[in-house]
Prior knowledge:
Elements: E1 4-6, E2 13-17, E3 22-26, E4 32-34, H1 38-60, H2 64-82, H3 89-92, H4 104-123, H5 131-142, H6 180-192, H7 200-214, H8 221-235, H9 247-252, H10 254-267, H11 270-306, H12 313-325, E5 328-329, H13 331-338, H14 342-354, E6 359-360, E7 370-371, H15 373-376
Parallel strand pairs: 1-4
Antiparallel strand pairs: 2-3, 5-7, 6-7
Amino acid sequence: MANSVQFETFVSGTLVSRFHYQSFEPSLVNVQWRWENPEISVLLEEANRTLGELNAFSLIVPDIDLFIQMHVVKEAQTSSRIEGTRTEVDETLLSEEQIEPEKRDDWREVRNYIEAVNQAIATLDTLPLSNRLLRQTHATLMQGVRGEHKMPGEFRTSQNWIGGSSLKDAAFIPPHPDGVPDLMSDLEKFWHNESVAVPHLVRIAISHYQFETIHPFLDGNGRVGRLLVPLYLVGSGILSKPSLYLSDFFERHRASYYDALTRVRASNDLDHWVRFFLQGVTETARKGRDVFREILRIRTEVDEIVAKFGRRTDLAKEAIRHLYRNPMTTAADLEKKLSVSTPTANQLIKDLVAQGILVETTGRIRSRIFAFDRYLKLFVG
């Protein structure tokens, strides 16, 4: 039987003196958890209910994978923005040549995140959520971008810090590198420990806090830590598809997010963090559910419009399928994806613009870029 720890008496860790600094050494989390605050149970029930509603759309929406990709794009853009990148959702969807040179470094980071998410979700079919999977994901995230020399795909072997310019003025100093392997091993065991009766959403709330506190990589911890949430939910069968991402909630409540994590470390207040996390799940799942409802409405309207395209109806339907995956396109894109001639692609775009499905975004005569605007707006803002 695992040790039992109560939220109200939880000790988050200890400060250990090192050479010129103190590192925070967190307590292990692979234990049985209990709490007295009834609000947590109420929030947990609401979060599970809205998560179930969100997952229902994953099961009933035809061709759901067409739309999941835009959820991934939105998450990549938002999670990277928390780390300081300045790439907008519509820019994320463009090719590198279409991006202004001074913005390409940020663009590559976001594109890496998209690739990392897609790879990690696909890998869950053959490899359970594990430190190995997280290291693989981190390697993809860091490939060819800022941080590529900071041990991509490997846990750190040197001391890092959060905030400040050095260890001397850091806002928070994670555990010493010597302890990282054991701490991450304990966390991995916690994900899969069936002998502890901990609800999944409480388990992943504790796991996200613990991961961010361990800060096991030299760079990219925030992004991997936020990605840990949908990986856990899909890996444990709570979600059929990766449709819930908390980065948008964390960014909109950024100060509260960092404060909640800090309160655990500084004041042992795990209760506050779990309540904040569950509120985030509920709000995000509700928002995701509403987005799927809008997608179904848009899909019905667009299907009715293109059904009147006559002999070009089938071609228009195929173009729309591509636009659900990437709602930014050019005539050349459609020409290639649909294997049609240049005049046919141009005429198709002209028809879609005339019906208000596509909107030209550049104001140029040449190299024009078109947006499936009403759909794209679901993921912007």
